[in-house]
Design goal:
Order of helices and strands: HHHHHH
CATH architecture: Up-down Bundle
CATH superfamily: Ferritin, core subunit, four-helix bundle
Radius of gyration: 17 Å
Structural class: mainly alpha
CATH class: Mainly Alpha
Distance between the termini: 16 Å
Number of strands: 0
Strand content: under 5%
Number of domains: 1
Number of helices: 6
CATH topology: Ferritin
Length: 189
C-alpha cells in the first residue's frame, strides 16, 4: 500500500472514529469541543462530507474508466453511499440537529482534492487499478475498525443500528472490491 493510499485510508478512518463519537449520548447535542474530539455537529458534518467525497470518487471512475466492471462498482458506490448519507441526514432531521463545518471536514476536502488530482492524471488500466486498490484498502480497514471498535462502543441505539446496517453493506463492497482487484491484476505476477 503506497503512502497516498495510506493517507486516504487515514483520513477516512479519522472520519469514522469521529463519527463514532456521536454515540456518547442519546441525542446529538451541541457539546463544546475538546482538544481531542469535535462536537457532535462537527462530527455529523465530517461524516456527510466523507460520504460525498466517496461518491465523487465514484463519479470520477464513471467519467474516466472504460472498464465495465469498474463502472459497475462505481455505480454501486454511488447508490449505496448515497443511501447511507440519506439515512444519516434523516437521523439528524429526526433529532433536529444541524451539522457544523470544521477543520477536519475542510482537511478531508483538501486531501480528496489531491487524490482526485492524482486519479485524474491516470487513464486506462492504470486508473482502474489505482481506483480499485484504494477502494479495497479503504473497505478492509474501515470494516475491521467499525466492526471491532466502533459498533461495540456505540451507546446510541439508533446510531448503532445505522453503523451495523452500513457495515453489512460495506462488507459486500469489500468482497466486490477484492474481486475487482483480482480481475484487474490478473496476469501481473
Amino acid at each position: 500500500m503506497n503512502t497516498k493510499t495510506r493517507l486516504s485510508l487515514f483520513s477516512s478512518l479519522l472520519l469514522i472514529g469521529l463519527l463514532a463519537l456521536i454515540t456518547t449520548g442519546t441525542d446529538l447535542g451541541d457539546e463544546p469541543p475538546t482538544a481531542t474530539a469535535p462536537n457532535d455537529m462537527e462530527i455529523a458534518h465530517i461524516a456527510y462530507t466523507a460520504g460525498i467525497l466517496d461518491i465523487r470518487y465514484a463519479h470520477l471512475a464513471l467519467a474516466i474508466s472504460e472498464n465495465p466492471d469498474v463502472q459497475a462498482f462505481a455505480e454501486t458506490m454511488i447508490r449505496d453511499h448515497t443511501a447511507v448519507n440519506e439515512k444519516a441526514v434523516a437521523l439528524l432531521q429526526q433529532l433536529k440537529a444541524t451539522p457544523q463545518d470544521n477543520p477536519t471536514s475542510q482537511k478531508l476536502i483538501q486531501d480528496a482534492a489531491k487524490i482526485r488530482k492524482e486519479l485524474m492524471a491516470l487513464e486506462g488500466a492504470t486508473f482502474d487499478k489505482r481506483y480499485a486498490a484504494n477502494e479495497l484498502a479503504y473497505h478492509q480497514f474501515v470494516n475491521q475498525t467499525v466492526e471491532n471498535q466502533f459498533i461495540p462502543a456505540v451507546r446510541n441505539p439508533q446510531f448503532k443500528s445505522l453503523l451495523a446496517s452500513a457495515l453489512r453493506t460495506f462488507k459486500v463492497h469489500e468482497q466486490h472490491a477484492e474481486k475487482l482487484n483480482s480481475s484487474l491484476n490478473q496476469g501481473e505476477m
